Every structure is written in structure tokens, then in C-alpha cells.
Amino acid sequence: MRMVRTEPRAISPEESHMIIAEPKRIASNGQHWYTLAGEACHIQPGGKPTTLREARKQNLVPSVSGVLGMIEKPHLTKWKCDRMVRKCLENEHIDGEPGQDYIDRIHGYAKIDQQKILDFGNRVHKAIEEFNLGRFDESKDPEIWPWLETYVRWTHERIIRVVAVEKTVVSNRWGFGGTIDLIAEVRGIKGLVVVDYKTQDYTGGKPAFHKEYSYQLAAYRKTMRPNPRCISLVINRSEPRPIAEKVWVPKELQRGWRVFKAANKLWQETKKYVPQRESDQ
Prior knowledge:
By secondary structure, this protein is α+β, with helices and mostly antiparallel strands. The protein contains 8 helices and 7 strands; from the N terminus they run αβαβααααβββαββα. It starts with 12 loop residues before the first helix and ends in a 10-residue tail after the last helix.
């Protein structure tokens, strides 16, 4: 399949004010933080992950995902519990093994599986990013191509033009930041569209578009004027299948924003930290 890179359209002055230039991305296993200027600040100069202590001193804002960590996610909790039970069934207790050692062993097995899932998701995400930028090289990760191909087919059907990839945005008013997977023009939808990718294992069933997805997208769209439409894409993890898509309706996103705003307030109150606005400094 031939890959064609589409040049981004010119962004209006109003849009350029809201969509911040892409910063250098730094991987981190900790909380993600951003400056009010829209720069990622996940890692400190010494190489250690940024903590709340540094964030206070540098007036950094938390990530959207960090804020949403305040909300219980029943589907994720159930998945974790099911995984632990499955590991117990697959690995029996050894005679004479102390109970805590058995518990630690089961946790270790579960963490290995979780890391594999995270690694796969990161590989798919990176491949999609590279494709959107017009520089994907199949030889770098040939195993991931069948999953990327499902996304390529989706773009041929839906994408008119790529506008921004992995774009960092911040809200000075509400005090949060994040990185949007894709901003694009999409067939059948007026104006810009924010697109977010997720991976799931739904073989034998249907993909689940969890309401938490709308919370995340609702926060992203609040950093842009006018507020864009939003799409969630779900990629099947167990085998390559056609991309599942959901276009969130305004009512769902409005509800999602109310939930996110409440979570943001809860985050600020429990952390005892409210980032100063630029106008307050």
C-alpha cells in the first residue's frame, strides 16, 4: 500500500493562538507536566521525573490523564481483578511458599503482562504518529504493520488533511495540559476534529467506548476555539481488524467537560496546588 503524506493546511491566526507548537517529547513513567507556554516538562534537568514539588516551584500544570487519575474507572478495575484471578489459576501456590511470596509472585506475573500490553500500545501509537508525519519505515517494526494498515485504510476513507500530530495544548484558565494524538479535517464533519487512539482486546465482542474517553477529549477541545468535534478510534489488540470509530456528540462532550472540570477541582484540592495563571503572575 502506497503511503502519501498530505501537507497541513494553513492555520488561521485564531487557531495558531490555540494550537501550540510541538515540543521535544521526553518519555517518562511518572506524572506528566506542562509549562503554561505549552512545553512538556516531564523530566527535570538532572534526569529525574518531575514531581509535585518541582511543579509548585516552576508553576507547571498537570496532564489531562493525571487529572483523570482522580476518577475511579470500573472497567479498568474489573480488568485488573480478572487478570489477577487468572494469574492465580494459572500459577498454583507452591507447598511451603510463604503467602506473601506467592502474592508477590502473582503480582510479578501480572506486571509482565501489563508491560507487554503497554509496549504494544506504544508501538502502535508510534507507528501511527510516524505515518501521519509521512515518515513511517516498515523495516523498523515490521510486526506492527498489519495493525498500522488498519489505520491507513481508515485514513483513506476518512481523513481529508492532517493538520497537527502529537500537538501539545494547555489551558491557562483551567490549569491543565496534554498532548493530542491528531488534529485533522475529516470527511463529513465541518471544521477541525480531535482524534484519539486506544487499543483494546475485543475479539469475539465489540469495542467499548468508555465514557472516560469523552472526559479526556472534552478537556482537549476546551483548549481550542472554536471547540472542535472529537473522535475516538479503537484498535483491536489481539488481531488486526478494521478500526472502530465513535464520533462523540456535543451533549456527550459537554457532560464530559463537567466531569473533567470536577476532577480538576478535586485534583487541585487534594494536591493543595492551583497553578497560577499567566495574568496572575
